[in-house]
Amino acid sequence: MDAQGIDKRGSGPPGATTPFRKHLEMDYLLKVVALVVTVSAIAIHLLSRARKCWGPANLPPGSLGLPVIGQTFSVFRAARANSGNEWIHDWIKRYGPVSKASVLCRPTVFLTGPAANKFMFFTSGLRMGTPRSFQRIFGEKSIVDMHGQDHRRIRGALMEFLKPDMLRRYTGRIDAKVRRHLEEHWQGHTTITVLPLMRGLTFDITSSLLFGLETGATRDAFTRDFGRMVEGVFAIPINLPFTTFSRSLQAGRRARRLLEVITSDKKAKLGQGKASPNSDLINRLLSMTDDHGEQLLTNEEILDNVMFALVASHETTSILMTCMVSHLANDPATLAAMVQEHEEIARNKVEGEALTWEDLSKMKFTWQVAQETLRINPPVFGTSSTALEDIEFDGYHIPKGWQVIWTAIATHMDPSIFHEPAKFDPSRFQSQSSVTPPCSFVPFGGGPRICPGMEFAKMETLVMMHHLVRHFRWNLCCKGKTFMRVSFPSPLEGLPIELEHINPGDRPGFAK
Ligand code: HEM
To answer: Biological process (GO) annotations (predicted)?
Structure first.
């Protein structure tokens, strides 16, 4: 300070830096920083509030995992390690009945429980459909890729063939096929592997009733091509020479050419009155006309839907019958009750007489055993749909374009719905009203897309079980555990069993 009392510390030529000036600049800088931080904090807060109001803030709990890949690898790893059911069980335990994940490179919501199943079956904002790779192999016009009026038209046409009044005509034909199958592949063998044999049986029944294609060279070629087509569904969809997918596409083209020849031949025969409209599904569909007298389904729709019916029916029914064999091996009391039911039916028939639709209606206990098997081992894991618009379930937001999957097993294993769910107990189905609430037992799905082949599958299963439990006893050669492939569970190693042929007529009081 000088003599006039002026502090000169901050004076000096302009631009000169003194400690005081430095202090002022620092102060100013701090204020600016504080202002920027405060404004940013307010902006972030406001933006996040806006996101909550307008954006997909309330997504279900879960994890989308690594970008793009998500949980795809862990799902496939679980499938290969026989633990698909455990994977979904653990996921639900961790994140609850509504959860998000990323499967097959798509953001996905898993829904479980009766209310969720109902939501999946009846919500119009969800659209079912097969992946593009499936369509390239099996065709684009199958019922699962149809919606609204087209879906109703195709479903109505399929139901004309699959309704009980029509199916009853085929009981005798199925009975003959089952007897021949058992004579050729079971009788005289001490060990067999059940799943491949059941697949052979259901393929024989289905291709006969759908296409009118009986055993022979053409059927063998078609069977080989069909197997290759199915392989492509689970392969990486790259169409390059020697890839599984490309082989599958080629097999699909061959199978389609064969079906085209079969269909035009059938059309000609129907036109000449040389074939019955009801002898198989193709004939039935060719014979149906609309109000203007035109064929109700186009030729392409007929081919794609007959092919889809084969896919939908073949593996599912063979898994059901194989899993029944597995459960019965571990449950002598249930097997004994079934034998009694079938012996009573056989007692009222002469030797070799075919089963009738009326006989099947008496097999109530056997169907309960089948239902309990379907509960514990649902052949279809679930189905997936795409959200057509932003939708909400149970307070959670499901964004437009996301995949939504329901799974039967998660509901079937819920102890609040099925007491001691792991226990095999067919008496749960003694009365249909005992299975509550609605949409708790869903092996065949539900709503407007509920499986139209349920009665067909029931008919095949009851006929096979009738002859099986009357003529054979078996022991499992492996633990019989089921494992989950991507969409179908399969018993371990195809379920090898040791087999004993018995003659019911040799036991007192039993019909031959
Ligand atoms: C045990 C045997 C079977 C099981 C467990 C089964 C299960 C299913 C399931 C879960 C669905 C999806 C339903 C939904 O989205 O709500 C379905 C659909 C379908 N099933 Fe089956 N199925 C079986 C046998 C059959 C048979 C024997 C046929 C034909 C002969 C068949 C034909 C179809 C068709 C055409 C659809 C599509 C229906 C539509 O989209 O409207 N299924 N099945």
So the answer is: sterol metabolic process
Find residue 398's DSSP bridge partners. Answer: 391
The radius of gyration computed from the CA coordinates of the chain, to the nearest angstrom, equals: 32
**Once rounded to an integer, what is the mean pLDDT over residues 226-239?**
88
pTM of the predicted protein model: 0.86
Tens of pLDDT, residue by residue over 176-216, are 999 999 999 999 999 999 999 999 999 999 999 998 999 88
Q: Which atom of ligand 1 is nearest to the CA of 382?
A: 10
Q: How far is the CA of 317 from the centre of ligand 1 (A)?
A: 10
Whose CA is closest to atom 35 on ligand 1?
A: 309
Report DSSP letters for 88-116, one per residue.
HHHHHHHH-SEEEEEETTEEEEEE-SHHH
Q: Which amino acid is at 495?
A: L
CB-based contacts of 494, cutoff 8 Å, min separation 6: 193, 194, 195, 196, 322
Cα–Cα distance between 47 and 52 in angstroms, integer? 9
Residue 348 CB contacts under 8 Å (≥ 6 apart), including other chains: none
Average pLDDT over residues 381-385: 91
Q: Which of 161-165, 195-199, 412-416, 475-479 has the lowest mean pLDDT?
A: 475-479
**Secondary structure element (H or E) that encloses residue 384, with its range:** strand 382-387
Instruction: Check whether 323 is labelled as a binding-site residue.
Output: no
Nearest CA owner, ligand 1 atom 31? 453
CB distance 442 to ligand 1 below 6 Å: no
Which residues have CB under 8 Å from 347's CB, separation 6+?
Answer: 511
Distance 508 CA to ligand 1 centre (A): 42
The answer to whether the beta carbons of residues 208 and 173 sit under 8 Å apart is yes
Q: Given a cut of 90, is residue 174 above it in pLDDT?
A: yes
Question: What is the per-residue pLDDT for 3?
Answer: 36
- Alpha-helical segments (H) within 330-363: 332-347, 357-361
Is the distance from the beta carbon of residue 381 to the nearest atom of ligand 1 less than 6 Å? no
| Closest-CA residue to 276 (of 229, 187, 222, 212) | 212
User: Three-state DSSP class for 406?
Assistant: strand
**In this structure, what token pair is assigned to residue 258?**
């064969």
% of residues, the chain, pLDDT over 70: 84
**Ligand 1 mean position to 144 CA, how many Å?**
10
pLDDT in tens, 85-131: 778 888 999 999 999 999 878 899 999 999 999 999 999 999 998 88
Distance 311 CA to ligand 1 centre (A): 9
Using a 6 Å cutoff on CB, does residue 319 contact ligand 1?
no
Q: To which residue do tokens 């083209």 refer?
A: 253
Q: How many residues does the chain have?
A: 512
pLDDT of residue 481: 59
Atom of ligand 1 nearest to the CA of 456: 27
